[in-house]
Amino acid sequence: MSDTVREDRWKILPVVLLAPFMGCLDGSIVNVALPTMARDLGAGLDGVQWTVSIYLMVVSALVLVFGKVADLIGKKRVFIWGFLVFGSGSLLCALAWDLPVLIAARSFQAIGAAMFMSSNQGIIATIFPPKERGRALGLMGTTVAIGTMIGPPLGGIMVELFGWPSLFLVNIPISIFAFVAGAAMLPHEVKKGLLAGFDLVGALLFALFIFALFFFLLDGQVSGWSAPAELASLVVAVLCFLLFFAHERRVADPMIDLSIFRSGLFSVSVLCVLLVFCASFCVNIVQPFYLQDVLGLSPALAGLVLLAAPLMSGVIAPLSGYLADHVGGEALTVLGLLVELAALVGMSFLGTGSSPLLAAAFLGLFGLGQGVFGSPNTKLIMTHAPQSKLGIAGSVNALARNMGMVSGIAFAVSILYGVMSARLGRKVSGFVPGAGGAFVFGMRAAFLAAAGIIVIAIGLTATRARRSRVSSANAEA
Q: What pTM does this model have?
């Protein structure tokens, strides 16, 4: 893929944007179907939630690995074949007859998602000139937000009408289209097609770090944080991270160029992505159960209520991206986080007798904050990264997003059922019929904890804004 500006770049962009949309959509679309899947597969929430968790774990573990592979054998090749793997995994998910098979199929599906999600931002950075990259990457940020937040409502409607296997079958025609369109439209790269320079040791250490860390986070809330398996996984995670860091500093061609994190503004922006998506998934994982189990809504009606967030985000995000191009993104990110904070505090007051319309209003407010925050923050990440490392920056951004999703699941479920267990005087790992009040009590604690995460993000963005002004003033002087 050459650096020549492509005349058809705006025609190529929709094909490339299918990657973040589908990757994030499938990371969240299963959430609303978890109660139905648990009943059909004879599993509890703590087991069936692994269909969501394993997908995000595999994507997080492999997105940087495939980013490096794409640099060696070509972004186009990794992108289009990723959709083929993703579509095949989706078919296997739809045909799964029990929970272990479904979890294995979701893992295979996630490999494809990691492939195309690792390539999309690098393709955009290559085919668009610097003066248009902000707009194109802003649209990608919008696509990420919509894909993440439209999953639960769309999933609810599809489960109600067609059953949970339809959540995976719908991916197949889209994957075929992306493969064919990508093969035909994406520019060809002249690559040797060899993996001789691939940092295999770094890739293995990083993957082990992700899996060990996320096992600790996700299984700890079920088995207990001090259980032998959890403590062992935490030790493995710490050791793998330290070994990975030391290895990457020594190796000639590292999997991750750690110098990109020397920019404090870049690092803060990426950390904010992780925090915001952690808080977002607290909402995504808890609200479907509240709407269906506490308020008694059907999956379809719950899906319509949940649709308020992505609709608002989809309307606001393009406007926010446009404003970021003209007035800068610092103030917009702070404003978006303040709106999200207000929405989370509002959700914490929902009860057993609350109106679904009130829940929809708070979800819409949360989507408004997401839309205001997302595009400007993505642009700031790519602006603070060196031009020669835009591909790496995109992969790091995708990793932070997925790590935030997994952390949000563990965070929300742990607080929700920990508080419920304390309230009921016995350990629970799912909704208890007739105990809606206990669920609401746990939900309130989860949402207030998520609000605390947003407060930290607000502090970081405010600090980033001050540092950015100082840097600009020094540059002008």
A: 0.78
